[in-house]
Amino acid sequence: MKSLIVIAFCLCMLPAVAYAQEPSNRAPLIMAPERFDQWGDVRLNDEDAHLDKLAAQAKEWPLSIIYLFIHAGQTACMGEATARGIRAKNYLVHKGISSERIVVTDAGWRKEVSVEVWIWPPELGKPKITPDFDLKHRAVKLEKHCKIKYRGRVNP
After folding, report:
1. 109, 112, 115, 143: which could form a disulfide with 135 (CB 3.0–4.6 Å)?
2. What angle separates helix 44-60 from helix 80-94, to the nearest 10 degrees?
3. 131-146 b/e (C-beta count within 10 Å ≥ 16 → b)
4. What is the rounded distance in angstroms from the CA atom of residue 102 to the CA atom of residue 99?
5. What's the distance, Cα to Cα, between the start and end of the chain in Å?
């Protein structure tokens, strides 16, 4: 009698166990999106480390969008934030992240160069960044004929 009950129980549980082990095509849900990372005017190797961390996380959340908000500093070359954003996007694409998932925004100017990174679910739209520290155009010194400062790599 006990073996009959055990067999009946196993037969009843078999569909539930099979369903629980089916692979899911759904990506992990980002429950409370927030800024993922930020950095300032750092050496290229340090920026690469931030971008490596970002690429690894983006691979964990394959349906998310990566937003890079780049602020140029108070003294900046024309197009500096855009150039930094393009460089970061190219680096991430080289690391295997689809370019369609990366949104680069020239976010204006702050006293210091800054990069804010958000990994965001597409259904929430674009994240809002705080403009509290943004500088007005008249407070910025733009250099027209300069080369954008590329930080040198530190050889290990």
Report:
1. 109
2. 50
3. eeeeeeeeebeeeeee
4. 5
5. 71
Confidence of residue 151 (pLDDT cuts 50, 70, 90): very low
* Residue 106, beta-bridge partner list: 70
pLDDT per residue over 85-104, tens digit each? 999 999 999 999 999 999 99
Residue appearing with tokens 């530190």: 154
CB atoms within 10 A of CB 47: 19
What string of DSSP letters covers 36-87?
EEEE-S--HHHHHHHHHHHHHHHHHSTT-EEEEEEEE-SEEETTHHHHHHHH
pLDDT (tens digit per residue) in 37-69: 999 989 989 999 999 999 999 999 999 999 999
Q: What domains are defined for the chain?
A: 35-143 (3.30.1330.60)
- From the list 81, 76, 83, the residue with the least C-alpha distance to 146 is 76
